[in-house]
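Notes continue from the previous slide.

Worked example: a multi-chain complex. Inputs as given:
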Amino acid sequence: MGEQITRKELATRLAEAIKDRATLPLLQLLCDAQVEGVGEVADIWTGPFSSLRDDILGFAGGEGEAGARAVGIWEEEPTTGEFVRSRRHIDLWRFCANVDRIRKKGNRKRVAFLGESVARGFFFSPQYGPAQVLEKQLAAVGPSVEVVDLAQSNCGPWWLVEMTRAAAALQPDAIVVFAGNNWRAGSLSRASTDAFVQDGGLLAEDGGLSALMARQQRRAAEIAEHTVRELAKAAHDMGVPLILVLPEINVADWLSCPIGTLDVPLMSELDTVAWVDVFSEAREAADAGDFREAEDRVQEAINLDGGTCSASLELLAHVQLKQGKTREASAALRRSRDIVDETRVLPGIFSVVAEVIRKVGREVGALVVDLPHVYHQHFGNSVPGRGQFLDYCHLNAEGIRVAMAGTAQAVVQALFHSTADLQRLVEAGPSPSPEQEGWAHLLAGIHNAHWGQGTEICSFHFKRAASCYPPIGEISIPLVYDAFRHGVPPLLLSSFGELVKNQIASTYLMGYGLIGRGLIREHDLLKSIVAAFPSLGNISSDPDFVLGEIDELDLLDAHWLPLMDGNRWYRRAFKAAYELESAFPFVSARSQKLELSIVSRVPGARQSGDIIVKLNGAQVGRVSVQDQWCDQRIVLDSSRVKQGLNSLRLIWPNVPRADLRSSLKVRFETGQQLDTRTHFGHLHELRISAAT
Amino acid sequence: MAVFVGISAHYHDSACCLIKDGHLVAAAEEERFTRIKHDNGIPSNAFRYCLREAGVTIADVTSLAYYENPAKKVARQLWAGLPGILNNPKQRFRIDPGRAQDEIRDCLGYDREIEFVDHHLSHAASAFYFSGFDEADIFTVDGVGEWATTTYGRGVDRKIDLFEEVSFPHSLGLFYSTITAYLGFEVNDAEYKVMGLAPYGSPRYLDKVLQLIDCWDGGQYRLNMEYFDFLGGDRMYSDRLCEHFGEPPRVPESELAQFHKDMAASVQRALEVILLDKVAYLHARHPTENLCMAGGVALNCVANGKVLREGPFKRLFVQPAASDAGGALGAAAVACVRHGEDRLSRERQKHVYLGPKFSARDVARVVNPSPLKQCALDYSEDPEGLIQATAERLADGKVIGWFQGRMEFGPRALGARSIIADPRRPEMRDRINALVKMREAFRPFAPAVLESKMAEHFEIDHSSPFMLETCRVVSSLALPAITHVDQSARVQTVNEHTNKRFHDLLIAFDKLTGCPILLNTSFNLRGDAIVLEPIHAIWTFAISNIDALVMEDFIIDRTERPEAWSEIIEMMGARLKKKRRAADAGRANVYSFL
């Protein structure tokens, strides 16, 4: 009893101290928290991927039913010694090779092929992929080699190492690991005590975010080094060579910053205003064709944001490309892809991770297939883009054949101590059927649209899909259009059932697709389809939400948020505008007079300003806004409202706003979710209805 | 216009409610929107819904109230969780007294002053202000809030005076949860399973159970802490407790032996004995005819029935959302009173239909483009036909998903988001378990009965619209699907004023069968939150084996399932098993004191 009273008194005194929030972080200093290593679950499990976390953790221990040995989803069958795909992992079948049974090792040499979704052949899976290409290429230049496809979509470094260790049960003669896209540091809050103190301080400083990102990059490099060493140890324990295939990324045709949005870091009051000014000037100059001026202006923006903003780096690359500065543009785009942003956890190897794989891989005696180098040699000096990739990092058929040719060279060297000609291997690699390639492009078009890419690249994939295999243009694309235009998940629609009759479509849409998207705004996807197939433009893109058939639209409803909207990562009852102009498409049954209700604010605004409201390109009103919520209404004249699709745009004022970085430090030190990006405005309500 | 918002969050079952011009107009748990069972995050979706339902914006909110006082709570959190806090930074973040305010700012966008209302005052207000009583004694009992675990109070007009409290670690809620954990059930979730198991046993261990707790004269009691372990972080009971009962703790999901049933009976009886003793004390302090109860323990409907039947009070009002979700209601009401708002309605809460509703058009939007359209019947022009057709299906032994009107607030499905069936059929309990619920066979389902005929079938003389009491089944009908082993049932009485369509259905079923009773259980799959919107309902229908879905004006009969859905069901089943296993592995069978 006495002990309890003492404890209560101490707790009460400590609680008194903690009321001063500066004291709370001191508790961290009493903790013995360590940096999370490769054995921990990385941030890839946040956001849309979080539902996979338990599936992967369900593997932990590496044992199947009744203690049987297991290699991923394959469990050893006691009677035959073969590894059989377990039905209890049916939820992961679509993330793995479509192989029912891994037979006992025969006379052929065996290569265990491990990796992530790139190695899986994402968009082609399960009908075509790197492992089968590699096997054919090897057969063309030497003795037949069995390639056991153990690659798995969404595979993180911890699971990769576990899988590699487990692969010993298959008695491989070589291990090929094609991975690195998913190797990233954990979130800031999981850092060590030492890092905690330093990270918190950086958040409030000028240039601090840039330094913080560099620290996160170093943490990713540490994880990469640990992973490579663990992979090497696993291969060493098996007594077999290790081949590391270093991934390349899509540099030319992938925007890190989703189209129409910005990722401007929090800055000082003056710097934010200045950034908006120079960035806007740069865009105007670029639009006017004055690329030199645009480059100068956007460099000023980058100087202000410290290179932590994809939007400015990508604008820089754009204007550099226009001036023929390919190498500089490529460097800017790679810098953009190296930005660490917790709201967009996309696969893609960081430069520092690539360097670690090169350096440490060689140190541990692994053969490193340097794909950036292989592609550079094979494709010439062009910046890697749609010629090799279907999205941010997943390869098209040509990309796969060249990548695997480079890998085959290494396998031949490791197993047979001989060499093989790259071009011969490329030619020996099988191509997918036109139907398979068409489906890959169709699914890539959907994927690109969901991840905020522009109409041009999405339409490119849809057109390619139809040119590869015309029935896709006639049947499948209209089905996709129908499946994604309703206010309910495609899964519940009849057209979805038709689509997933195709095995490639089923693998994507019922594997990744079910996880990767909920109810999201699909106007960008539909717009891209219509750009490629104008005849579909006659079909309403939003039949369930037509103003005139329904009384009003809540444009902030979850249905209206794109998948890449940063708000999806934060539990907000309002929309934070990360962009200078917020766009909201809506469909009207006819030309009609409408009323727009707006509840808005500019967080931290030092003075009031006006939101400019544009409808279909024309200014239709102004709404006063300040740092407190304002509830206002404006009437949209019927002459401005079109029958069919309309575009509402809100242009936020560039008013001076308070420096919010000090509050960021407090949030960090108390373990709360950090948003390091500037909100140019907030909308708590945006409703449009027929005017009375 | 006066608009008061109440928020509960950061423990379990976060929720939001809104009182406009003195009337409770909207309330919902966040889990229904996010589909995360027991979601404890700041209820941003529920908040948006409440504003919209009330026809107001955030700029109209007069005051926002939070259901507990984080600054007061932190000392108790430190007391209970210091070792964990020091070893786990994530736990440290949970004790931050500024977290609620920050997240209300960041997630809800609310930028004015926040009213912090003590946890048990929120509970007390959620009962008293919605009881319709001008004067009542108030009794709140739960695991723990700030320090209080039990409070005694009195409400007169708009004034609540909590005059005595029992402080942590002495807690009837934790006492019951400890035995729940010892019996291998999940703490903070499965206490009602212990209550349901109790009638299968005999209270042969009552004396031993009562040795765990020193029940003093007056309002105080003390847990004998040598039997409890609230500090270790791994479990709630000590080795001494296992020695005391001479049995090891039950392994979760393992076979239930007679010992476990007898233990359940004993702890249930002990709780009833103590509650009766304490309400008698409360009555003695302030004699009155009315009692209000709230707090998680007040969801123990068996004990509530005893309190009313055997206790000194003539009338009992239990807040139907008695657990933390309901704290949002109390907090909003307290804020309303603190702001001198004299318009706070003192009417008795008549129903719990405070959540979102969906129009026939909303339903059609989901049904029409789906493969289910071919087996959907639209009764929008024939509402009587809908009732008749539904009653016929029930009489034919069909199990029906019933989705009508505004969603319930609180843990019980009361005829808005329900699965319903014929209670007379002996096979029905097993059938529903096999089709959708997959729950323990010993747990009974509850009946909904026409209020006008309740006395013919149940030993009850007052309406019980919230399923918060049990009573004896005295029906001449055999009602095996809803009658517990001890001949009791957890009754919901239904009248035409609170849920007309459900009432009409009961009448139609009565006309067809002579039975004015339906089995009524929540519309969800095991481990899922109750459905909120048509998409959830249709998907739950699609992946379960419910025979028909009656959603607003549509009846959808089961038909052959599309192939893709069957594949997804198998995938989801595998994933669910892994999630459960991961949860079991990661879950210390212990109440989180943070």
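Summary box: Chain B touches chain A through 69 residues (CB under 8 Å). The first strand of chain B starts at residue 3 and ends at 8.
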